[in-house]
């Protein structure tokens, strides 16, 4: 939780420079507490496993989180029973008149396809555009982040010669924000993708800043500075066994998938991998929730009128 301090405390400047989570006394006196409302657009075929991965991380915050599960209406997933989807998931028409602090868009196994060739692309574009007036901020994971980068900023994805697959060291850049408070200068993050967003393409958009990158896999976390939107191109949310299950699935399908790097102990596929990135996953999501809590308006309906300020809206 943020630390409440007097607005005129001399130490304020130093604490703010160090990205300490603060709330000034004058704002605290006028502040009401309500649940953080998050809309979770789950595009993964393994919906139940993805729900667990993210709910585990979101539940680590002391703040109350109200999580609404969302799916596309134009595409029916084959791996989740329809009754489960009808009971627990909502579509855009179900939430069209509601407002949320944040929209999370997961990855999807469609990254080799052109965006407009994806069955539900038109619907996803509608959801992303709708979110500008109904969701204070957005966070996209892997392909979800690529979709947001492409739609709002024109940043293309490029197919790589070989799949980036495994656990890779990532480094904080000079522009790293309080979203990365508590991180070590270098930390591990799971990567599983065939495409990349190139640093030179991101650099052409002045409002985008790279917070985390890898010498081997490129941009890891990108932020839209004015809006606070985040594009997380890798998978801190993964469980210990996720990459291993993906590796065995690809082998069964006859794909020429290399062993995930820095994953199995001694590169032995029979070994039991250790989730040594999980502390950073908890830390990152907790920092994101606190950052969202500090900035989001109490009356979310003001998003529809733009009363929260143009700086919080994507172009």
Question: Could you walk me through the main structural features you see in this protein, from its secondary elements to its overall organization?
Answer:
It is globular, with a radius of gyration of 20 Å. The protein has one domain: Class I glutamine amidotransferase (GATase) domain (Rossmann fold, 3-Layer(aba) Sandwich). The protein has helices spanning 12-17, 25-30, 47-58, 82-88, 92-95, 121-134, 143-153, 199-203, 242-252, 278-295; strands at 3-5, 22-24, 36-41, 65-70, 100-105, 135-141, 158-172, 186-196, 208-214, 218-224, 230-232. It is an alpha/beta fold and 315 residues long. Residues 307-315 have low confidence and may be disordered. Helix 3 (47-58) links the parallel strand 3 and strand 4 (65-70). It has a nine-stranded mixed sheet with strand order 4-3-5-6-11-10-9-7-8. The protein has a two-stranded parallel ribbon with strand order 1-2. The protein has ten helices and eleven strands. The longest helix is centred in the C-terminal third of the chain and has 18 residues, at 278-295.
């Amino acid at each position: 939780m943020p630390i409440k301090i007097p607005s005129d405390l001399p130490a304020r400047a130093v604490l703010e420079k160090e990205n300490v989570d603060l709330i000034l006394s004058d704002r605290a006196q006028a502040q009401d507490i309500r649940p953080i409302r998050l809309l979770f657009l789950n595009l993964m075929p393994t919906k139940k496993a993805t729900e667990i991965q993210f709910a585990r991380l979101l539940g680590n915050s002391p703040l109350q989180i109200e999580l609404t599960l969302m799916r596309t209406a134009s595409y029916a997933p084959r791996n989740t029973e329809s009754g489960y989807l009808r009971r627990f998931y909502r579509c855009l028409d179900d939430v069209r008149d509601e407002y949320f602090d944040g929209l999370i868009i997961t990855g999807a196994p469609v990254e080799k396809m052109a965006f407009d060739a994806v069955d539900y692309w038109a619907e996803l574009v509608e959801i992303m555009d709708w979110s500008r007036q109904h969701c204070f901020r957005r966070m996209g994971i892997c392909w979800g982040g690529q979709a947001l980068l492409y739609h709002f900023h024109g940043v293309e994805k490029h197919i790589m010669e070989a799949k980036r697959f495994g656990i890779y060291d990532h480094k904080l850049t000079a522009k790293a924000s309080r979203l990365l408070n508590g991180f070590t200068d270098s930390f591990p993050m799971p990567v599983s993708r065939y495409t990349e967003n190139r640093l030179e393409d991101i650099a052409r958009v002045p409002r985008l800043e790279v917070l985390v990158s890898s010498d081997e896999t490129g941009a890891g976390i990108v932020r839209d500075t004015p809006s606070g939107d985040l594009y997380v191109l890798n998978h801190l949310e993964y469980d210990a066994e996720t990459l291993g299950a993906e590796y065995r699935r690809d082998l069964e399908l006859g794909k020429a998938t290399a062993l995930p790097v820095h994953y199995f102990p001694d590169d032995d596929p029979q070994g039991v991998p250790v989730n040594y990135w999980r502390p950073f996953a908890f830390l990152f999501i907790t920092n994101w929730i606190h950052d969202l809590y500090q900035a989001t308006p109490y009356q979310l309906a003001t998003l529809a009128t733009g009363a929260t300020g143009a700086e919080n809206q994507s172009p």
